[in-house]
Design goal:
It is a single chain. This protein has helices spanning 11-30, 43-72, 78-103, 109-128. By secondary structure, the protein is mainly alpha-helical. The longest helix is centred in the middle third of the chain and has 30 residues, at 43-72. It is rod-shaped. The protein starts with 10 loop residues before the first helix and ends with a helix.
């Protein structure tokens, strides 16, 4: 059987098997044997093809393992997103408080006290969250 008929093999495995058959055929021709036999009929061709299939399977397994490892290493960003939202909320609150402080007239002591109390309450409620 060729690498193309096996389930789970890739195009690379088929190419590797073809290269192995070509090398085996060339080696057989160089050693003095006739090159008229069909590929895959001699023991060397069968062994070379089996080795090529095994290497292709091993490479496919390694690739699948790397892909699975890449998927598992992605961090969970939910905590970071929540912290960022909290900082944004606090920044908006601080900006609003700053704006409220500038609106208070310098003579109005009761308004300043009320603003300070409101600021303390807002800070306390933000801290509880």
């Amino acid at each position: 059987e060729t690498a193309q008929t096996e389930p789970g093999t890739s195009k690379n495995a088929a190419v590797a098997a073809a290269v192995a058959r070509a090398k085996a055929k060339k080696a057989a021709a160089a050693s003095g044997e006739t090159a008229q036999t069909e590929p895959g009929t001699s023991k060397n061709d069968a062994v070379a093809a089996a080795i090529a299939r095994a290497k292709a399977k091993k490479a496919a397994r390694a690739e699948a393992t790397q892909a699975a490892a890449a998927q598992q290493t992605e961090p969970d960003n939910q905590a970071v997103i929540a912290a960022r939202e909290e900082r944004k909320k606090q920044a908006r609150l601080h900006k609003q408080q700053k704006k409220d402080n500038t609106q208070i007239s310098g003579d109005d002591k009761q308004a300043r006290i009320a603003a300070a109390v409101a600021k303390a309450k807002a800070k306390k409620s933000a801290h509880k969250e």
